[in-house]
Structures are given as C-alpha cells and as structure tokens.
Amino acid sequence: MSLKWIDSREIAIELSELYPDTDPKLILFTDLRQWILDLEEFDDDPKHCSERVLEAVQMCWMEEED
C-alpha cells in the first residue's frame, strides 16, 4: 500500500507508531513534511504538499493520541 498526501489518517497512524514519544502539537511543519517524505510507504509528489495538508496530518495525529 502506498500513501499519498490525501491519506492524512493513515500517515498520522504511521507517524504515531514511529514517534511514540513525540507530541504532535509541538512538531514544526518542516520536520513533519520530512518525516512524511521519509516514510517507506509514502509515494507522492513532494510538490503537492501544502500547509493545509500538514495541518490535516497533525490534527489526525492529535486525535490518535487521545
């Protein structure tokens, strides 16, 4: 399965498993973008990333933490 920018929830789940001690509210978007790009399953054009996409991933991650 490959992940795309629109897969906010699935990306958030992957990141929460990789970075269990990280508070998603404190992540810089530059770091978040790179972490997503570094995911083995991620396969999308880096140019399609926007602040809105990163916010969606961050929100999903925060929901996963609750």
From TrEMBL:
Signal peptide: none annotated. One of its GO terms (molecular function) is ferrous iron binding. One of its GO terms (biological process) is iron-sulfur cluster assembly. SUPFAM superfamilies: IscX-like. It holds the Pfam family Fe-S_assembly. InterPro entries: ISC_FeS_clus_asmbl_IscsX (IPR007479), IscX-like_sf (IPR036762). GO terms for cellular component: cytosol. This is Fe-S assembly protein IscX. The gene is iscX.
